[in-house]
Amino acid sequence: MYWTPSACTAKRCWNMPRSARISRSRSSDWNVPLVRRYERTRRTSMTPQPAAWTIAAIMLLFSGCNDRGTAPPPQPQETGVKPGVGRARVIQPPPVVQTRLRTEPVTLHAVPEIVTAPGEVSLDLRQVAKVTSRIAGQAEHIHAQLGDHVKKGQPLVAIGGLQLDQLIEEYLVWKAQADVADNSFRRTQKLRVDDIVPERKLIEDKGRFLESQARYQHIREKLLNMGLSIAELAALERGHQDETHRYTLTAPIAGTIVAQNVVRGQGVAPGAELFEVVDTSRVWVFANLPIEQARKFKEGQPGSITPKGGEPITAPLTYLAPVADETTRTIRIRFEVANTQGALKPGEYVDVSLPLVGAPTLAVPITAITTVENQRGVFVRREQGFAFVPIDSGREGGGWIEIQKGLSDQDTVVTEGVFDLKNVLLKEHIGSGE
Questions:
Q1: Regarding the domain delimited by 90-112+360-432, which CATH topology (the fold level of the hierarchy) does it fall under?
Q2: Listing from the earlier edge strand, what are the strands of the sheet with 128-132?
Q3: What percentage of the chain's residues is helix, strand, coil (to nearest 5)?
Q4: Is 316:333 a contact under the CB 8 Å cutoff?
Q5: Fewer Cβ close by (within 10 Å): the C or N end of the chain?
Q6: Regarding predicted confidence, which is higher, 382 or 163?
């Protein structure tokens, strides 16, 4: 007689794994229900054996003992130098680059501190001349005009007038009287020697001679001061008076006419400024310094004058004001600058700089400095090539830069060909993929 499961039992049986169904068919214990046998078999297979648990515990114990004496793996530490192009790596430039390199040892050098200030170009007052008339008259002829370059003594304007005519007339009259008095005095002297004339006659003739001579010399000096030359006065005495009745003003210095205030036919008053002539071959440059800075300088020290968009010009410091400005509390200084090429224009603004030399310090030429990854540094010679070394720099001046950190006096730096070395460093960095 065969066992026939019920519908519920059959459903649970056929949901069992195949191995359970096989073991059921082979089992001799037909009195135990099939589902209970499956659940017992499943619990037995999932329960770990005591030996396995013991082995696992022993292995875990030994593993813990071995790890207790082992140090943890080292962690990377920050060194202060970021990896990348700027780290201290030695590069070997190709021969074509090495031929363009120049090196210099790091030495002690007095790096000047540069004091700067805004300045203004001004005319050298010794190079300025204003031309004025000493008599009243009328401009009859204009010999030069605004912008002309004139030489010393070159005619500028001819002035005619009644006052000049009167002076010339007086000059000629007193010249004639002086000549007559001179002849009379000489003749009286001879007659007095022979006792022909009395002593009083000699004294009277001598007095008239001295008076006429004094008046003649006085008017002569007036005409000479007005600009008439000795040759012109001699021509007056000879009776040549074609042009001598004109008062001719001449250029007192060589330079350029920068102001003209007269035209032909214009009336001229005594003291009226008619022309201004300036010589800009030498100019002044003024600047103001704080009192504490001005104390550090002396007259005669060299400075640098740099016009906007121009090249620096070296000039001596010629003046330090003995008193401070009451408003700004600064000291006015002046440079005397040679300006034969006309680079400086009076009235323009310039940059003024004065070097203040300090104690010698570790320094390199400014041409050795370059920037890699926003870090200033230099290329230092090594046994196998060159290495970029970051630095901390101080003041700059005179083509040198102070080194505060990063180098020693035992190092040798590259001063020429720095750009080529930088290109080699960048190419190696790109090739390494860092």
A1: 2.40.420
A2: 128-132, 273-278, 255-260, 149-150
A3: 35, 30, 35
A4: no
A5: N
A6: 382
Residue type, 110: A
Strand order in the sheet with 246-250: 246-250, 155-160, 137-142, 267-268
Q: Is 287 exposed, middle or buried (0-12, 13-18, 19+ CB in 10 A)?
A: buried
Q: Tell me the average pLDDT across 70-95.
A: 57
CATH fold of 114-125+279-355 reads: Elongation Factor Tu (Ef-tu); domain 3 (2.40.30)
pLDDT digits (tens, 9 = 90+) for 237-277: 777 555 547 788 999 999 999 999 999 999 999 899 999 99
The confidence band for 347, taking pLDDT boundaries of 50, 70 and 90, is very high
**Cα angle for residues 157, 160, 164 (degrees, 5° grid):** 120
Residue partners of 74: CB distance under 8 A and separation at least 6: none
**101 and 92 in contact (C-beta within 8 Å)?**
no
Q: Scanning the structure block, which residue is given the tokens 């001295």?
A: 210
Strand partners, 279: none
Show the CA angle centred on residue 130, arms to residues 125 and 133, nearest 5°.
Answer: 155
